[in-house]
Each structure stands twice: as structure tokens, then as C-alpha cells.
Design a protein that fits this description.
With 481 residues, this protein is mainly beta. The protein is built from 2 helices and 28 strands. It has 2 domains: 110 residues, no CATH class; 318 residues, Neuraminidase.
């Protein structure tokens, strides 16, 4: 596109402009158009003392420029308050600048001072049944697991609906961390450590009865155990306390298959595990270099460091319907709640709540719209808080006051959050649920220090199931029927 440029200095009469038109060809030199803005160009009256020729607009104004007509508007000093002069055809001496290349601008590195860390809008996922075949997880697939007869109904507890508490295992050395997930029959599966026998313990419920077994012979770190269930296969990650290795296991046909997936340095602490429709495990853990993310591709384990900051704890991993990984955690050095996600090969992490000392006991869940919900404690004020990305920004809510330790979060089919947590003032296990209008808070267990750490899951009827240690040296399970 050829552009006629007219340089004006000071004030000119119409005669001066006519003379200038017939003068020798203007010596233009290359024009520095600066960075392409990409927005609509304002072609109104230019400042004639220093004309701004910014990037051209590809709309109607560009057509006018192609004809060599400049809309000079009214000059500020009134001298040019007259009809626009007809400059005729452009002088052949002028430079033909051709068409502008409006390719993608080089925006440089983003300013991460206050990053907008919401997950990208990826549209509606295609949740059709994938052709998964038989996933190769490194260990042989020995067929479906033997999980006992599923318990499809509520226990015969009698009375009005309410919380039913059951004892899973009584021993002074069990806990302090418990992880729970449900199989397709609604049976709860729990994972925890027994420090007395130095074993990892798996408990499951069938027909109203609890069964408990050792998971191998490794001595686990009691605070570094995690469990999930997908397609009735139990997946666990844990750290060996003697070697500080990150380990992975699956329960298939009643038998456990084990694998060490990271044995370099001190790794595997505070682990969390998730499995999606591809049946490929994804694991997050703490190590000396920061947060390590490990995932199975179907052929090999891949390793990445997400955040190399020190003292990152209360790590929680969740995957969205596209199987993208999302993470919440607490930066104990700066007292911030942090969030991160991985889309393709791009990993984004950063703080999302920095108002005081916030982020301890973080727990993350992704909803069906791939929007994260995070429960955590505001230590400065002692409150239970919820952070939710609504598609355009983070919304922060105080759920309960003077509480908020040991949180665990789940989402129901209406995308309403449910949270289990410890009331550090009354020393009770509590449960909060959002119905779309208000929060309802219930006391689940009033034994002193019961539920200092809890793990929450919802069954097919969206009834809450909470597993937790009691101060008496007992693993308990609470179900609402």
C-alpha cells in the first residue's frame, strides 16, 4: 500500500502549501512505526507539530490512504481552517512504502509481577469414550482388581439421616495422613502409614465391613502417602522413609505391583497422585530442587521441575477433563497461596493470594468446566478460605472463621464445593457445603483433635465420605446417610 506523507512545520498559508507541492521531492527516509499495536487506529485530526503515523488500520481509513488523501482535520492554530487542498497524484519522488507487514507482534517476555494465573479457556472437552487399549504402565496388566463385593446401599444404621462414624483401624501408631477415594460400587479405599510396623496400609470397605492389608514391605514416610481409584484400580504414590525414593504401586486382582520412579537425591515428600481417562498416572512431590512433576506417557516416566523455590508445602494435584495437570501449594517463605498448571509443554506457576500469610493446608479440585477450586487457611486471620477461578478472575471467599486446618475439597454435579476441615478453636472435624446461595457448616466429630487432617470424597449420590485420624490412635471414616 502506497502512503503519501506530508510533513508540516509551524504554520503555513495555502500558497505555501501549493509551493511545497511543486518543490523538489521530499526526502523521507525510513519511517519507524514502532511496535504494532494491533488495535483500531485513530485517524482523526493529527497533531501537525509532530505528526503520528502509527500502524495503519486495514479498514476503510486504509482505503483513503491508498488514494493519497490525508484527513488533516482542523489545525489547532486556525491557519488551516479551510477546505482541504487537493494534492493531486502523489509526486513520483516520494517513497513507495508498499504494504505493511502486520504479522504477529513481538511482545517480548510477559510481566509476571502480578500474573493472571487462571487456566486458559479450552472450550468444551470431547468426553467421548477414548480408544485407550490396555495402558502399559510399566507393570503387567493382570486383569481387573479383586475389590470384594461392592456395597451399593447405605448401611443399616437406622434413625434419621446423619453422620455415621466407623472405626477402620485402632493403633497408636497409625496416621497422621489419610487419603481416601471411592470405587465404582461406592466402597471407600484408604491409604495411611502404620509407624509401629513400618508399613503402608490399605483399607477398604465392602458390605459394611472394613478390610485392612499391608501394601508391600516398604517403610513409608507417614506424611507422604496418596491414593486414587480409577476404573476400580487402586493407584498409590508414597515416599520410602529409609531411602527417600518416590514409589508407585497399583493393586490388580488383589495383588500389588510396585515401581520406584525417582531415586535421585531426596525426593517423593508430600506426594499427591491423580489418574484420568488415559489411565496414565500423574504425581507431584517435593524435593530439594523444588516441586517435581512425574507423569507416565504410556511408555516411560517423564520428570519436570515446576517451581524451584524452597519450602513449598501443602501440595495438591488435580486434573481437568482434558487431563491437564493443575496444582495448588503453599509458599512457606513468602506466606502465599500458589497455583500452577501445565498445558501442552507450557507450565505456568505463581501466587494467587498474597493478602497476609495464606495458603496453608491447600486442597485443589477441578470442576467439569476446567475451573479450579482451592480450599486453604488464612493463617493471619485464622479463617477457612476458598479461591475459585470463574473464567475471568479469582474469587476469594471466607467460608468459616477461626478454623481451616487440614482441608480437603470436592465438587458436586452442580459445581458446588464441599470442604472438610479441622476447627482448631473447638478441636472438631467440620464439613461445609455450598448450595448456590449460602454455606452450611456441620460438626462431624467432636472428639478432641479428631480430623486434624482429613480426606473427602463424594459418592455417586453425592453423599460425603470423610476419612481422618483420631487423637486416640485410630483411623476413622465418616459417611452421611
Amino acid at each position: 500500500m502506497a502512503v503519501l506523507l506530508v510533513a508540516c512545520e509551524g504554520s503555513h498559508s495555502i500558497d505555501d502549501l501549493d509551493a511545497d507541492r511543486d518543490a523538489a521531492a521530499l526526502e523521507m527516509g525510513p519511517i519507524d512505526f514502532g511496535r504494532v499495536d494491533g488495535g483500531a487506529m485513530d485517524l482523526g485530526g493529527p497533531d501537525l507539530s509532530a505528526p503520528d503515523f502509527g500502524p495503519p488500520d486495514a479498514g476503510d481509513d486504509a482505503a483513503a490512504l491508498d488514494e493519497g488523501i490525508g484527513d488533516l482535520g482542523a489545525a489547532d492554530d486556525g491557519v488551516l481552517d479551510a477546505e482541504l487542498p487537493d494534492f493531486g497524484a502523489p509526486d513520483a519522488g516520494l517513497h513507495d512504502l508498499g504494504t505493511f507487514d502486520l504479522g504477529a507482534p513481538d511482545l517480548g517476555a510477559p510481566d509476571l509481577g502480578a500474573p493472571d494465573l487462571g487456566p486458559p479457556d479450552l472450550g468444551a472437552p470431547d468426553l467421548g469414550a477414548p480408544d485407550l487399549g490396555a495402558p502399559d504402565l510399566g507393570a503387567p496388566d493382570l486383569g481387573p482388581p479383586d475389590l470384594g463385593e461392592p456395597d451399593l446401599g447405605a448401611p443399616d444404621a437406622g434413625g434419621a439421616p446423619g453422620w455415621r462414624l466407623s472405626s477402620v483401624e485402632s493403633a497408636a501408631t497409625v496416621g497422621p495422613v489419610v487419603s481416601v477415594a471411592l470405587d465404582s460400587g461406592g466402597n471407600a479405599h484408604l491409604l495411611y502409614a502404620d509407624q509401629g510396623v513400618m508399613r503402608l496400609r490399605h483399607a477398604w470397605q465392602s458390605g459394611g465391613t472394613w478390610f485392612v492389608e499391608d501394601v508391600g514391605t516398604d517403610n513409608p514416610t507417614p506424611t507422604s502417602v496418596s491414593l486414587t481409584v480409577y476404573n476400580d484400580i487402586v493407584y498409590v504414590s508414597y515416599q520410602r522413609s529409609d531411602t527417600h525414593e518416590l514409589c508407585f504401586a497399583r493393586r490388580i486382582s488383589g495383588a500389588w505391583v510396585f515401581e520406584t520412579i525417582d531415586d535421585v537425591g531426596d525426593c517423593g515428600a508430600l506426594t499427591d497422585i491423580a489418574v484420568g481417562i488415559s489411565e496414565h498416572a500423574q504425581i507431584i512431590c517435593q524435593e530439594a530442587a523444588g516441586l517435581r512433576y512425574v507423569y507416565w506417557t504410556g511408555a516411560a516416566w517423564m520428570h519436570e521441575v515446576w517451581d524451584a523455590s524452597p519450602n513449598l508445602i501443602w501440595i495438591s494435584l488435580s486434573i481437568d477433563p482434558w487431563e491437564h495437570s493443575h496444582l495448588s501449594y503453599y509458599d512457606a517463605v513468602n506466606g502465599d497461596l500458589k497455583y500452577g498448571y501445565r498445558i501442552g509443554d507450557v507450565v505456568v506457576t505463581g501466587p494467587i493470594d498474597t493478602a497476609g500469610d495464606v495458603g496453608a493446608y491447600s486442597s485443589l479440585v477441578m470442576d467439569a468446566n476446567a475451573e479450579p477450586h482451592i480450599s486453604y487457611q488464612d493463617t493471619t486471620n485464622g479463617d477457612l478460605k476458598l479461591a475459585h477461578w470463574n473464567g475471568s478472575g479469582w474469587i476469594f471467599t471466607v467460608v468459616d472463621t477461626s478454623v481451616g486446618q487440614g482441608t480437603s475439597i470436592a465438587i458436586d454435579s452442580m459445581l458446588h464445593p464441599r470442604i472438610s476441615y479441622f476447627d482448631s478453636t473447638m478441636h472438631d472435624l467440620k464439613y461445609a457445603s455450598w448450595d448456590g446461595l449460602s454455606w452450611t457448616v456441620e460438626v462431624v466429630d467432636t472428639e478432641v483433635a479428631a480430623g486434624a487432617h482429613s480426606s473427602l470424597a463424594l459418592d455417586a449420590l453425592e453423599r460425603p465420605r470423610i476419612s481422618y485420624p483420631a487423637s486416640t490412635g485410630e483411623i476413622r471414616h465418616a459417611a452421611f446417610w
